[in-house]
Each structure stands twice: as C-alpha cells, then as structure tokens.
Amino acid sequence: MAASYVAVLAVAASLLLLLLVSWKRWRQGRAKWHVIIVVLGDVGRSPRMQYHALSFVKSGFSVTLLGFCNSRPYDELLQNNRIQIVSLTELQKLPVGPYIFQYGVKVVFQSVHLLWKLICREPAAYIFLQNPPGLPAIAVCWFVGCLCGSKLVIDWHNYGYSIMGLVHGPSHGLVVLAKWYEKLCGRLSHLNLCVTNSMREDLAENWGIKAVTVYDKPASFFKETPLDLQHQLFMKLGRTYSAFKARSELLDPATERSAFTERDAQSGLVTHLRGRPALLVSSTSWTEDEDFSILLAALEKFEQLILDGESLPSLVCVITGKGPLKEYYSGLISQKCFQHIQVCTPWLEAEDYPLLLGSADLGVCLHKSSSGLDLPMKVVDMFGCCLPVCAVSFRCLHELVKHEENGLVFKDSEELAAQLQKLFSKFPDPAGKLSQFRKNLRESEQLRWDESWKQTVLPLVMDT
C-alpha cells in the first residue's frame, strides 16, 4: 500500500514538474516575441520610440509601451491590437520645499512607480529605453531585466545631464550627479543605439560605452502634400487661425478660397493663389535649447526689407508645438507690429502636422543641441516632405543638413534674415534657390524609417 502512495506521489511530482517546465517554456516563448518600450516622457511627443514600436510589431513582436499620455500618439499605434500603451503617472511639482527635495521625491516616486509597472507586465525579451530622461529609468529597467531575464537596450537621443545644465548650469550638484549616473548606469545595457556618429564617438571616448549609430529617418506619412489636400488643410485651419483665411472677399461665389489656394466649385480644380504669401513652418518643444528670438529678429529685418521696396512676398509663419516657454515667446510675438508677416502658434492634430510640412515653402529649425551631439528629428521629417530647411548651426548638424544642398545653415538673426531674403526673392520662382533645394531633396535617395530599421536595428537586436 505504501508503495502505491509513493508511486502516486512520484507521478504527481513528475506531472507538477512537467507542468512547471512547460509553463516556464511557454512564458519564455512569449517573452521571446515581446518587447517593452519605456519612455519616461510624453509618448505622443516621442516619434522615434513610436516608430520603434510599430517596426517591432511589423517584425512579429508584441509591444508594451510605457510612458506619459499627455499627447495623442499616432493613430497607427492606437489602432494596432499588438501594441499595449500603459500610462505612467506623472508626479506634478510639489508646492513646498527646496528644489533638491522636490527632485528627490520625484525620483523616488518614479523609481517605485516604474518598477511596479514593469514587474506587473508579461516578461519581455527586451526592454527598450529612451534616454534622456534616464534618471531613474536606466537603473530600474536594468534591475527588472535582471529579475525577468530581459535584455536592456538604451536608445541615446541626447544626454540628460546636458539638458539639465541648460537650466541649472553645468556645475550644479544635480547636473554633476546626473552625469555620473548616466555614465555609470549606461554601461549596464546589453546594446546601445545613438542618433549621430558624433555621439557614438563621444560615448566611446568619454563614457566607455560602445554604441551603434541609427540615424532618424522620416516615416512614410511625411511626404509632399497634394494640392487638393493642402487646400482642405488650409480651409480647416482657417476656421481657427486667421492666418490661413482668404485675404479678400470672394468675387466668384463658386470659388472656395484660403490664404494660399482656391478651389473651383464646378471643376473641383485646386490652384495656388496669385500673389499668395509664403508659408514658413517651424516646430518646437518650446525649451531652452531653442532660441526663438533669433527667428523673431530675422522676421523684423525681413519686414523692413519689404517696407524698403524689396520684391519679397508676405509671410505666414507657423510655429507649432507645446512646451514650458511657449507663453513667454507668445508674449514677445504679441508685441510685434508686423504689416506683412503673420505669426501663429497652433497645436496641430497628429495627422495634420505631416500635411502642414508637406504644404510649406520653407522650414526653420532653431534646435541647438544641449550636448552638440544629437540631431533635430523635426528636420528629418521636413526632409521627408521635401521641405528645404534653414537651421541654426551646431557641432554635428552637418550629418543632416548639407549647406547649399538641401538647405542653409545660419549662426544668428542677421544670417537668417539674409537667407530668407535670398530664398524668397521673386517668390515663387520655379528656377529659384528654394525650388532647387526641393529638387535636390526629391532626387536624393532617402531611406524611410521602415527600410532603415530592418537593415540596422532588427539585426542588432536579434543578435543581442
């Protein structure tokens, strides 16, 4: 009888062990095709990480995307049932206590909150982390990876300490601490990606971190906008922003007109208005690394040139984005008394932003990297739309903007004003410099994000 009990127990133990092994293998199998992407920031304003998520899904993975949900992500992301977006709670600024105390509380809260959110997820083969911000995310993601067998991949967009240095100064204690933390914890990852060759070299020489350059590429929806869609966009925006409205009353009631285009109601044909204003576009996060006083000063000089009799068009300048310094610059803009220039600062819907870039005549970029080592993705998107760009100069900009090939590089408002004069002289001249830049962009063989990702990121990840 005892032997029978022993046999039953042995069989039960064997079955339990078999079930545990099968369950573990099942979990490992699921983990192999699962990726967790962590953005300790606004998911909707993190296009590169959204592109990573979509690319992983197209390659057969399921994706969990953790981040703040302050802005709407791309519809393609929201509509994909293999992408789960998990909202992180953003701790608001405490009303009391010194700044260091407030920052310490924020770091502790984010550490515990992120740890809990990661532990509660299904195990993943990879934890894909955007840096910055990396404090405290790098250490937390590494710790969870050790517990769950996930490999940590850091995508270096910039340095967090250099961004903090814009506000507090490079010698501030928190900035020094953040630099030490990034340098130490950045070495814990299994794979490092970065956005420029200059950053790759800096990581290797000064941080002892080996990284692979993965240049930003435009998504497929960043392209030139057909004229009929331009007209639809202008009419839509004209309902909210006067800069897009027609300048004069319609003489023909059968014609629908915006500030830039008109549509014949009978034929449906859309054409550009004769004597239309030029459309200049800039996008921004309204942070300390973009000095919009440069653009405003250049616009004042451009206005004076028109008043002096130069053959230049009126301008509509659209600055789109959200950020902490928007109110400050909006105040400066409201003080300007332009006669031939209109400036508006809309926050566009996600699907309208590519259409606007594809409709514009010129892009202006005032992003001046805090580290000098990252590139503005807004220019990548503009180039995807074949939109020529004037960009403020910094250390590694040449890796993206080729002066006199796909745009112009300036140092100050004087140079920018001279470039605006040069590009818009006799506008819209099909033989002008602006048209030549656009032609060069059309003819350049630009890889789109999907093709580039499959050639670079996917092989790296699968070999890790």
Automatic annotation (TrEMBL):
Q: Which family does it belong to?
A: Belongs to the glycosyltransferase group 1 family. Glycosyltransferase 33 subfamily.
Origin species, per record, is Ailuropoda melanoleuca (Giant panda)
InterPro entries named among the record's database cross-references:
ALG1-like, Glyco_trans_1
Q: What is this protein called?
A: Chitobiosyldiphosphodolichol beta-mannosyltransferase
What does the record give as its pathway? Protein modification; protein glycosylation
Record function comment: Mannosyltransferase that operates in the biosynthetic pathway of dolichol-linked oligosaccharides, the glycan precursors employed in protein asparagine (N)-glycosylation. The assembly of dolichol-linked oligosaccharides begins on the cytosolic side of the endoplasmic reticulum membrane and finishes in its lumen. The sequential addition of sugars to dolichol pyrophosphate produces dolichol-linked oligosaccharides containing fourteen sugars, including two GlcNAcs, nine mannoses and three glucoses.
**Transmembrane intervals:** 6-23
Cell location: Endoplasmic reticulum membrane
What is the predominant subcellular site recorded for this chain? endoplasmic reticulum
Q: Which SUPFAM superfamilies match?
A: UDP-Glycosyltransferase/glycogen phosphorylase
Q: Pinpoint the Glycosyl transferase family domain residues.
A: 277-426
GO cellular component terms given for this protein:
endoplasmic reticulum membrane
Q: Name one Pfam family in it.
A: Glycos_transf_1
Reaction(s) this enzyme catalyzes, per UniProt:
an N,N'-diacetylchitobiosyl-diphospho-di-trans,poly-cis-dolichol + GDP-alpha-D-mannose = a beta-D-Man-(1->4)-beta-D-GlcNAc-(1->4)-alpha-D-GlcNAc-diphospho-di-trans,poly-cis-dolichol + GDP + H(+)
Molecular function as annotated in GO: chitobiosyldiphosphodolichol beta-mannosyltransferase activity
Q: Does the keyword DNA damage apply?
A: no
Entry-linked PANTHER family: BETA1,4 MANNOSYLTRANSFERASE, CHITOBIOSYLDIPHOSPHODOLICHOL BETA-MANNOSYLTRANSFERASE
Q: What class of enzyme is it?
A: transferase
| Assigned keywords, A-Z | Endoplasmic reticulum, Glycosyltransferase, Membrane, Phosphoprotein, Signal-anchor, Transferase, Transmembrane, Transmembrane helix
